[in-house]
Amino acid sequence: MKDKHHVGRREFLRSSTLGLAGLAAAPAALRARQAAPAPAAPEADAPRVKGFRTLGRTGFNVSDIGTGSVYDQGVFKAMLDAGVNYIDTAEGYPGHHRIVGAAIKGRDRKSLFITSKMALDEGDTTREGLVKRARKCLEDMGTEYVDCMMNHMPEKPELIKHEGFHQAMADLKAEGRVRFVGVAHHGSFWYRAPETSMESMLLAAAEDGRYDVFLLAYNFLQMDGALRVFEACREKKIGTALMKTKPIVTFNAMKTRVENLEKEGKEINPLFREGVERYRKLADRMDAFVAEYRLDDADAIREASVRFVLDNPDVNTVCCSARTFDEAEKYIALSGARFNDWDRAKLAAYRESCGRFYCRHACGLCEPSCPAGVPVNTIMRYNHYFAAQGREKEAMSLYAAIPGARADACSSCSGHCERACPHGVPIQGLLLAAHDALLLA
Question: How far is CA 413 from CA 111, 370, 419, 429, in A?
Fold first, then answer.
């Protein structure tokens, strides 16, 4: 019988997490440590938060492991019981505010740092309208104030300086309803803001001077843009919270989709079928590498990825979304953990074998080359919600709402995006797989 915490090499590569950062350590370092043990497992007792860091100029000591999207009230409460005190939520997350409100009821409110977010490209964005929206957020959470209200995914520089937002925040601060102001960003929507990026928007926010906390994407695969943002945050004492720290993609999606379409007797796009075959050949070549470097433990790769981002002193907290008590315990056990030589070598080996399979969050480098204007990064983010986060209905709804070209335009293309990708990601096949999955066609 299989150990529930491990999967076979082929199963792991086909259906678990794939992707890695541009780490400098050579895989040879791992070969030299083959006899070395993996990091010790957490103790039998339920783990507790061990690490706290100052969240920039807010002065608040936040847990190094925070909470991201909340799915289950019981799991969320267990994370708070274990010492997690940074809570990330948003007006646009269905039902999240009420889950948060139920979980924090009866707790010492001053021991928690709660952030929420409001988008400035929807709803009433006047000064009065934003004040009203913020008060509704507080009402749903049953709290008198929010520690930080974030400008959610501003896509144009003028939204960073949105006077209605800043006037509303000043009013709410005067009422004691909001303590600090922040920005959340993980890459723009190409079809709405083709000339902006996560880096450019957050650097503009740092220069603006009115933002106290940033929520951004950073992981062991995509570092360059975030590192420049961290430098600005260090200089201006802006707090940092992370999302998208464990880059993943469901490898088996393409193969399964083809098999299902064949069973249903439906026509299969030749590019889709060819993409699956390319993936299959890559996987065959990877097997020997995976065996040599012992990369078949999915949990070990995930945990190393979190230890990697926590190793950066400019990172204040990492938002982790847990659906089960087991997931929550594994994340909390990483609090205060050290990134070690074993992690470094294993991640470098993983990059060499699997790095091509991850379409980088907030990248968008291939998008200007697309003659149809397909929002590549946006589509792959929605596919991430669908395949990795279990947010199927939400992802399908978001995909259906994309105006203009979607990934079906890729079926008659010569592959401009793949030629433009500096990471060698077979993105055309991924886009076609995402289109079929998100439409459930």
Answer: 54, 9, 12, 11
Among the listed ranges 103-112, 117-126, 145-154, 250-259, which one has the minimum average pLDDT value?
250-259
% of the chain exceeding 70 in pLDDT = 74
Percent helix, strand and coil across the chain, each to the nearest 5: 50, 10, 40
Core vs surface per residue 150-169: b (16+ CB within 10 A) or e: bbbbbbbeebbebebbbebb
Q: What average pLDDT does the structure give for the chain?
A: 79
Other beta carbons within 10 angstroms of residue 326's beta carbon come to: 12
Q: Domain limits of the chain?
A: 52-247+303-332, 252-297+340-439
Looking only at the bridges linking them, the beta strands covering 61-63 and 52-54 are antiparallel
pLDDT band at 164 (very low <50, low <70, confident <90, very high): very high
Summarize the confidence of residues 97-101 as an average pLDDT: 92
Q: Give burial (CB, 10 Å; 0-12/13-18/19+) of 281.
A: exposed
The pair of structure tokens assigned to 117 is 């977010």
Confidence of residue 364 (pLDDT cuts 50, 70, 90): confident
Contact yes or no for 232/396 (Cβ under 8 A)? no
Say if residue 57's pLDDT is above 90.
yes
pLDDT at 34: 39
Task: Read off the amino acid at residue 335.
Answer: S
Burial letters for 334-369: b for 16+ Cβ neighbours within 10 Å, e otherwise? bbbbebeebbbbbbbbbbbbbbbbbbbbbbbebbee
Distances in Å between the Cα of 190 and the Cα atoms of 193, 200, 404, 405 are 5, 14, 11, 11
* Residue partners of 34: CB distance under 8 A and separation at least 6: 294
What's the predicted TM-score (pTM) here? Answer: 0.76
Assigned architecture for domain 52-247+303-332: Alpha-Beta Barrel (3.20)
The tokens describing 113, both together, are: 């740092």
**Which residues are 148's β-sheet partners?**
115, 180
Residue 376 is which amino acid? V
